[in-house]
């Protein structure tokens, strides 16, 4: 299905005491990708987990790991997450010091590279990056926590990024992250998103993850 929307449950909202089982459950429930939120307590005001934890759950599924690094500076950690089994590594345009170099470093490991834009960062930031990336992640909350409210102004940015992607003629994924549920998902997709991260909307529906994923897809 070429135009199907990908659903990427964020394990930030999983039960960390049963992380492996949680990953297996969302895999069986129909997740397309597993979204891994890495927070450093510096770039964002929260700390989640590092590459060792990710590596230990990597073995529980064959689904691609979509690794969202909220780390500044990020370059010293790219190899560790590549070694831990990332399929796509997303770096923040704001994390610095040289985002283009960070993207090159991800690509040099043979992985898909993504760039994330915070809500206050304009789409224009992508002008000299879009030709090198495989994915753009538009943040629809300020990064650092799950369970926040979708920021409406980002719909305009999703539409602007969709135009930029289409103009390249390349297959670049447009993923949206933050406050995605059955109400916001269709609006993000209508604006141009083709991949949706969902933490609370999936893991908050414990134990029926399949229903949660079906609902997001159907929406
Ligand atoms: O990157 C993130 C936060 O920085 C998370 O991926 C995001 O918040 C998902 O959680 P929710 O769906 O509950 O908003
Ligand atoms: Co995320």
TrEMBL record:
Its cofactor is Fe(2+); Mn(2+); a divalent metal cation; Zn(2+). Gene3D superfamilies: Aldolase class I. Pathway: Carbohydrate degradation. Binds 1 divalent metal cation per subunit. GO terms for biological process: pentose catabolic process; pentose-phosphate shunt. It catalyses: D-ribulose 5-phosphate = D-xylulose 5-phosphate. Substrate binds at residues 10, 68, 144-147, 177-179, 199-200. Keywords: Carbohydrate metabolism, Cobalt, Isomerase, Manganese, Metal-binding, Zinc. The active site is at residues 37, 177. It comes from the Bacteria. InterPro entries: Aldolase_TIM, Ribul_P_3_epim, Ribul_P_3_epim-like, RibuloseP-bd_barrel. One of its GO terms (cellular component) is cytoplasm. A divalent metal cation binds at residues 35, 37, 68, 177. GO terms for molecular function: D-ribulose-phosphate 3-epimerase activity; metal ion binding. Its EC number is 5.1.3.1. Belongs to the ribulose-phosphate 3-epimerase family. Catalyzes the reversible epimerization of D-ribulose 5-phosphate to D-xylulose 5-phosphate. PANTHER family: RIBULOSE-5-PHOSPHATE-3-EPIMERASE. This is Ribulose-phosphate 3-epimerase. The gene is rpe.
